[in-house]
Specification:
By secondary structure, this protein is an alpha+beta fold. The protein folds into two domains: 215 residues, Endonuclease III, domain 1 (Orthogonal Bundle), CATH 1.10.340.30; 119 residues, Nucleoside Triphosphate Pyrophosphohydrolase. Strands 1, 2, 3, 4, 5, 6 and 7 form a seven-stranded mixed beta sheet that branches. The two termini are 28 Å apart. The structure holds iron/sulfur cluster.
Length: 387
């Protein structure tokens, strides 16, 4: 079974409604009753469940955006272990928040979580706004997250639409419009709002998500054991395989570049990714166009959104004198472990450690001369794409 992930929420202008017709579900009260009863006996055992604390609901929901549930479990435990309250998160330094987030990806979520915690403490005395609309005034909290916090933590009758619930609702209602975020969501939100019950809205919303994760899966849904099969329009009309409509796939773009491990004596140069770049705020090795000079020590390949990055890694030595370039910092190899680094940066750091002995040999006067014959000052090109 391929678990679905939640899309990261963005503050955008209100999307136009699709032209496709959204058929309402025939008996919302019975759907809710059957679904909540199934949830009581079949729900997933997740570390953020069992608590209606708004802070824990919020942290888990932000982590779950774009990230699979199994991957989030350990991160969540570590994060709330280190920051058990919104006040403790607000008091933290950003680099510590990013270090705990490292490997989870989409670091904008971590920065916004941190910024929102500071706003909650500074402007709301440590208590979250008690309405979905109020929650949406905080950084990183969009329509989905606000609905999740308001319904799960406070029992408010607010709908949620994320990857799993979107698919379940589309099938229940027989909605065959596109659901790829290009205007297709609004009918689903309306149906979700018509389904969510006044009683136990939080359990209903979590039941929708669990049903989508465990039963109403993207491929081969288990309709034979589905607790709401008798209400399902897609099943009744033989269109389960067609709903939701297939997404338009974006072409993958390949980028070839070089990461340069610039060595100055026992230290290496790292640069902090700036505003508007992928992994903003995290440390990485400088990048140059493909073909940059230096001793080749490896290669890393990774994907970011619809890009595939093929990155050669070279090592280059520079003279001991002189300051670090703007935005850069010289650090010992052992100190890299304490920095919040991009995921490719962390992999390059491992390569650097692996090649430490070889690098020490090449640091001999003869080897050093050989390496410095090329470009002596690092003409560094910082990454410039937006995450
Ligand atoms: S009957 Fe099948 S398609 Fe309909 S909600 Fe249940 S699992 Fe999904």
């Amino acid at each position: 079974m391929k678990p679905a992930v939640r899309r990261q929420e963005r503050r955008t202008a209100r999307r136009p409604a699709t032209t496709a017709t959204a058929a309402p579900v025939a008996d919302p009260a019975r759907v809710a009753r059957d679904l909540v009863a199934w949830y009581a006996r079949a729900k997933r055992d997740l570390p953020w469940r069992g608590s209606r604390d708004a802070y824990r609901v919020w942290v888990s929901e932000i982590m779950l955006q774009q990230t699979q549930v199994d991957r989030v479990k350990d991160y969540f435990a570590r994060f709330v272990g280190r920051f058990p309250t919104v006040e403790s998160l607000a008091a933290a330094e950003e680099h510590e928040v990013l270090r705990l987030w490292e490997g989870l990806g989409y670091y904008r979520r971590a920065r916004q979580l941190h910024a929102a915690a500071r706003r909650v403490v500074a402007e709301h005395g440590g208590g979250f706004p008690r309405t979905a609309a109020g929650l949406r005034g905080l950084p990183g909290i969009g329509r989905y997250t606000a609905g999740a916090i308001a319904s799960i933590a406070w029992g408010r009758r607010e709908p949620i639409v994320e990857a799993n619930s979107r698919r379940v609702i589309a099938r229940l209602a027989g909605h065959d419009g596109r659901l790829d975020g290009s205007g297709g969501d609004e009918p689903i939100w309306r149906i979700a709002a018509s389904l969510v019950p006044a009683r136990s809205p939080g359990r209903f919303n979590q039941a929708l998500m669990d049903l989508g994760a465990m039963v109403c899966t993207p491929e081969k849904p288990l309709c034979g054991t589905c607790p709401v099969a008798r209400h399902c329009r897609a099943l009744a009309t033989g269109r389960v395989a067609e709903i939701p409509a297939a997404k338009r796939r974006r072409a993958v773009e390949t980028i070839r570049e070089t990461a340069v491990v610039v060595r100055r004596g026992p230290r290496v140069l790292v640069v902090r990714r700036g505003p508007g770049e992928w992994w903003e705020g995290l440390w990485d090795f400088p990048r140059e166009p493909r073909g940059a000079t230096g001793r080749r020590i490896g290669r890393v390949a990774y994907g970011v959104t619809h890009h595939r990055i093929d990155c050669a890694v070279v090592e280059r030595r520079v003279p001991l004198a002189g300051p670090a370039p703007s935005g850069g910092r010289w650090v010992s190899i052992s100190a890299l472990a304490g920095l919040a680094m991009t995921s490719p940066g962390r992999r390059i750091a491992a390569l650097v450690a692996d090649h430490g002995a070889a690098s020490s040999r090449s640091a001999s006067p003869r080897g050093g001369r050989r390496l410095n014959r090329g470009k002596r000052s690092a003409n560094l090109v910082k990454p410039s794409r937006v995450e």
